[in-house]
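TA notes, week 10

Several of you asked for a full example with nothing omitted. So below is the full record: structure tokens for the whole chain, then the designed sequence directly under it. When grading your own attempts, check the secondary structure regions first.
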């Protein structure tokens, strides 16, 4: 019997081998940058870091269909992978971590991981959880009103969905059929609070029909599944059919931030079990099975990325600090 040629999931999604390799590199960059940032924290050089490890599949996958220079990004603090796809460089990330003058997010004046970039269309985040959600709906309303082609994407954790801002933002987006995609990175904890103490439903996505648009659940550790869900939601938004809520089930491997001790609320066994679903290892198996990237190939990607990150750390550490006079900038009204 002749062998049947089966189409790979990435073919069906219209992704080339170059796309897959670039996605893999972005995931590895997020992971290694995360680990390096944590080391800088333990060395006393980075006061505060927010880990991404475990979320790379859902972040790279959902960010990938976004069009640079056209679409608008509203990430939350954990979205290192999202901002890397948007075009932020490891050097810029470390400028923020070290609070340097050229940090694109705030010139070193906000906490790290409060991403913002005029150049990249990333809207500055505030610290209160879910405040980016009504912002996203408002920006999407403006885009629709002006007849622009922009799609707005807004990322948040499942804890954010307990906030009033979240419900108001989704309700408004549903009423006006806005071109916005809401992406929930459900890692089952809001710092120490487990999902069961935050909501009486199993899936955040189940709430979407209550606002009049579809909600989909995807395996957040499967970068291609996340890409596929976002691609469809992005196309739907562009067709004028309104919002989508995508819920990516995932897990964070490190504590909530460098200031958290996760041993107080989850067992080591639970974390180890979650690590067996590592999004990077899973994607590397997918690539190896199809002869796209073998083990030595993956190792050399890691080596190249590590070198790039080491260079970024050295350069960012040596970059100038902000002038003391700029400390109160953007705090009080300034005379022209
Ligand atoms: C309105 C508000 N309440 C509480 C906090 C403190 N806080 C910061 S992050 C966080 C957890 C959010 O969890 P989730 O949305 O699931 O995202 P995750 O950190 O798990 O990725 C909390 C409670 C805050 N920043 N804002
Ligand atoms: Mg969470």
């Amino acid at each position: 019997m002749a062998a049947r040629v089966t189409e790979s999931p990435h073919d069906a999604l219209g992704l080339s081998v170059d796309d897959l390799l670039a996605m893999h590199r972005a995931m590895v960059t997020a992971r290694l940058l995360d680990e390096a940032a944590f080391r800088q924290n333990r060395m006393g050089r980075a006061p505060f870091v927010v880990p991404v490890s475990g979320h790379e599949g859902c972040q790279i996958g959902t960010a990938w269909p976004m069009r640079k220079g056209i679409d608008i990004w509203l990430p939350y603090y954990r979205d290192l992978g999202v901002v890397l796809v948007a075009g932020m460089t490891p050097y810029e990330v470390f400028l923020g971590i070290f609070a340097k003058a050229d940090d694109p997010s705030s010139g070193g004046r906000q906490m790290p991981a409060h991403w913002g970039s005029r150049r990249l269309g990333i809207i500055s985040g505030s610290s209160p959880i879910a405040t980016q959600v009504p912002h996203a709906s408002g920006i999407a309303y403006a885009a629709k009103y002006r007849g622009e082609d922009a799609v707005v994407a807004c990322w948040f954790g499942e804890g954010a969905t307990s906030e009033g801002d979240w419900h108001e933002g989704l309700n408004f987006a549903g009423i006006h059929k806005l071109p916005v995609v809401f992406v929930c990175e459900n890692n089952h904890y809001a710092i120490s609070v487990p999902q069961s103490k935050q909501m009486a439903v199993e899936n955040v996505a189940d709430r979407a029909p209550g606002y009049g648009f579809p909600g989909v659940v995807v395996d957040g550790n499967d970068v291609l599944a996340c890409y596929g869900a976002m691609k469809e939601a992005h196309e739907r938004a562009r067709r004028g059919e309104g919002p989508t809520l995508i819920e990516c089930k995932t897990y964070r491997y490190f504590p909530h931030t460098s200031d958290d001790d996760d041993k107080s609320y989850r067992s080591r066994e639970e974390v180890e079990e979650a690590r067996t679903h590592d999004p990077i290892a899973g994607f590397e198996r997918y690539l190896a099975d199809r002869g796209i990237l073998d083990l030595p190939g993956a190792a050399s990607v890691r080596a190249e990325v590590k070198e790039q990150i080491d260079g970024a750390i050295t350069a960012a550490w040596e970059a100038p600090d902000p002038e003391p006079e700029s400390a109160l900038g953007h705090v009080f009204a300034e005379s022209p």
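Residues 78, 127-129, 156-160, 163, 185, 187, 189-191, 256 surround thiamine diphosphate (ligand 1) (CB under 6 Å). Use that as a sanity check on your answer.
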